[in-house]
Amino acid sequence: MATGNWTRVSEFILMSFSSLPTEIQSLLFLIFLIIYLVTLTGNSLIILVTLADPMLHSPMYFFLRNLSFLEIGFNLAIVPKMLGTLLAQDTTISFLGCAIQMYFFFFFGVTECFLLATMAYDRYVAICSPLHYPVIMNQRTCAKLVAISWFPGFPVGIVQTTWLFSFPFCGNNKVNHFFCDSPPVLRLVCADTALFEIYAIVGTILFVMIPCLLILCSYTRIAAAILKIPSAKGKNKAFSTCSSHLLVVSLFYVSLSLTYFRPKSNNSPESKKLLSLSYTVVTPMLNPIIYSLRNNEVKNALSRTFHKTLALRKCIL
């Protein structure tokens, strides 16, 4: 298409769940609003409790605190706009707003991959080298690992978003998704995107699959170490220290794989929307619940914090 025939796009229309009846959209709004509030409350509680309780000042909870902060950011980048499209039918998003949303999606998504790998390494050291754990996972090492986990998201988000939004867009500005994800926005481009798609594949391998392989390696070593423990009680105790993280990793990577690595013939826009909900909306809500219900230390810390708050309130009154 000649340059003179391109229509400059100043905003996009998020199709979201517009194909559904209004009553269903209202129901979805209530469901997603509840999930959103639970996500913010649950992850905020994890951050506050792990900061306030001295018993939780350990590397594992330092990484968990970062994960909760990340999940809050992930939700703030996507869910409020989705709620707006469902409640007020405000489906438009500016060109810049779409680019910013996509940037934060890449930033938080890549960071989560590396942070989950870091948490897997922490569990590997705790189980396979328990005597050396305090020395290896000291405060300085933990800070470096967190910095390494957060850093890759910046260049990935900037390069991929800037490159994609530098393409010319045709007259069609309807994004068939509930947020500005790369594949549906890329379909609106009227230019050759072959090089960008190659970059996207390479980026996926580097920044998604490599952390996944590191997690698999860590848990292979962990499983081998657990099997060498003679007593069943010892095995259960060792497994319980990493079961919450393993469940969180499984939820994240299974939903991510089903969304982005399925054959295109089996990947309709509507099914992709449903699968995208699992890692953008549902998983961030489940993470604090999983760590709270399956972790006695977190449950005890929540109980102590609750009783301290009640005692303090009584003293004030």
TrEMBL record:
Keyword Zinc: no
Protein name, as recorded: Olfactory receptor
InterPro entries registered for this protein in UniProt: GPCR_Rhodpsn (IPR000276), GPCR_Rhodpsn_7TM (IPR017452), Olfact_rcpt (IPR000725)
GO MF terms, alphabetically ordered: G protein-coupled receptor activity; olfactory receptor activity
Transmembrane segments: 27-51, 63-83, 103-121, 142-165, 198-217, 238-262, 274-293
Gene3D superfamilies linked: Rhodopsin 7-helix transmembrane proteins
Membrane topology, from the record: Multi-pass membrane protein
Lineage: Eukaryota, Metazoa, Chordata, Craniata, Vertebrata
A single GO cellular-component term on record: plasma membrane
UniProt similarity note: Belongs to the G-protein coupled receptor 1 family.
Taxonomy, superkingdom: Eukaryota
